[in-house]
Amino acid sequence: MRNVKSMMQGLSIGVRSRAHLVIGVIALVIVSVLWRSAFADVFPDKPIKFIVGFGVGGPTDIVARVLADQLSGILGKRILVENLTGASGNMATQAVATAGADGHTYLIGATPLAVNQSLFPDFPVKFGKDLVGVAPIGATSNVLVVHPSLNIKSMAEFVRLARERPDFITYATLGQGSSSHLAGVAFDMLAGTRMVPAAYRGGGDAAKDLIGGHIHAWFATIPSVLEAVRAGQLVAIATTGPERATWLPDVPTIAETGFPGFDVRLWVGVFSPAGVPGDRMRAIEEAIARSMASQEMQKILDNQGIAPFAMNRVQFDTFVSREIDRWKNIVGALKK
Known about the structure:
Elements: H1 2-39, E1 48-52, H2 59-75, E2 79-83, H3 90-97, E3 105-110, H4 111-119, E4 131-146, H5 155-164, E5 170-173, H6 179-191, E6 196-199, H7 203-211, E7 217-221, H8 222-230, E8 235-239, E9 265-273, H9 278-293, H10 295-303, E10 307-308, H11 313-326, H12 328-335
Parallel strand pairs: 1-2, 1-3, 5-6, 5-7
Antiparallel strand pairs: 3-9, 4-7, 4-8, 4-9, 4-10
Helix pairs in contact: 2-9, 4-11, 6-12
């Protein structure tokens, strides 16, 4: 009997041990499944790509590369920057709009993105439908500079000459739809002048020709001509934003000089294909906000003459939509 009893006790212990083992295995499986579920949507799970529709070294490209460095540290993933030029930025826009909506491809877009919606009505990518805003970065004014040989010191003198001599003043642009071109077209409309745009591939060539006296004027980004202005090689007449530029506090805005409401700035922001999951969009938006709040980023933007935008994603979307509407009339004049 004692042997039978011992055998029964051993059997009971063995059953309990196996039961505990089974329960432990089941628990381990459940934990494993839950762990995999929790981390199945880890983001980003591969390098992120920023696509820029303009050449290396321009303000949009510089901003893209600085932001990429910042976000790489915040997100823990490498961010690649690709320059895809052509069609006034449309090639880059289309590449992003048709990329997979997995949150790993973004456009570093600028003012021409809004202009192109009217400039190229047959362009298949539409803002709000195929492409959406993620976060703004900032904006910078241009400055109208002229060669000293014109002997012009004020906007009144510039307008007088341009009106007296239609098709005489040549001004540099960085291509159709660029901020330098749009500023010239907008100014012609408001001032009743008729200037001649001269297209350049980059700001370096434009500055070289203007300083050399081969063209008369340029609605230039401030950093690209600031040294020449200070050296007396170029004369700063007026800036194109709603407020005076901190780098040129003594230079009036065009709006101050008799053309109220004039506002042509190069703004830059981050865009994504439509359909990116909300949690991934929020992750990128929050990472950009952290980057923008850093002193390093603010210093770099200031060095480029760029003032940060304080907008959330919804406000930025609204801003871009309004910019698209605002440029319709100017684009209409541009096509004539």
